[in-house]
């Protein structure tokens, strides 16, 4: 009887204090955010909080959240587009009762989508493997144009520092790189700045490949101005600035 009483008391205390249950290695977790390609069959995602807003979801940064790298080659992939091959929704969406994508697609379709840029998703994962990747419609947010320093972090990823805070950002083949140099393949700030405006910003139009090549040659951060989406971490344009950081 004493054992039974003790067990009953323990259960009552747990109910009041929300006793933690040990998490096993096979526990499935859920994370929201923008997924980026990170090598063959892998994605990276910085966890964010998601709040429903009609048929969309508002994403907000979680202080202290750490980026995850997950494999997805065996994951179910559900799109908001009505067909797997579509690049955009083209004005028609396939959503379930909670406004998540319901078009069933394959991991290869996810790889194709990630190659074009970040995707707003909910990811169910176990360990380091995604089990299900589900698209949703992200609530629109404004772009931001700011100055800071950049340093290469990896293929089409960079570390951007401003005001003592550093964030990882990404870009796609569609990035516009505005240079002050005479040629797109020149070294950083090499030669006479023949293509700078009155504010020292580059005006010569170059591409993502030129930006990647320029960053690979650098050993220290350099001053730039960027146009980017804070929620997804996607950089759309980079201006080379005449003046070293």
Q: What report would you give on this structure?
A:
By secondary structure, the protein is mainly beta. Helix content is 14%, strand content 40%. It has helices at 2-17, 107-115, 208-216, and strands spanning 28-37, 42-45, 48-53, 56-61, 68-71, 76-79, 103-105, 119-126, 129-135, 144-154, 157-162, 165-170, 176-179, 204-207, 222-229, 234-240. The strands form 3 sheets. Strands 5-2-1-8-9-6-7 form a 7-stranded mixed beta sheet, with helices on one face. A 7-stranded mixed beta sheet has the order 12-11-10-15-16-13-14, covered by helices on one side. A hairpin with a 2-residue loop joins strand 8 (119-126) and strand 9 (129-135). It is elongated, with a radius of gyration of 23 Å. The model is unreliable at 1-24 (pLDDT under 50).
Q: Which key phrases capture this entry?
A:
single chain, 245 residues, mainly beta, seven-stranded mixed beta sheet, 16 strands, 40% strand, elongated, disordered N terminus
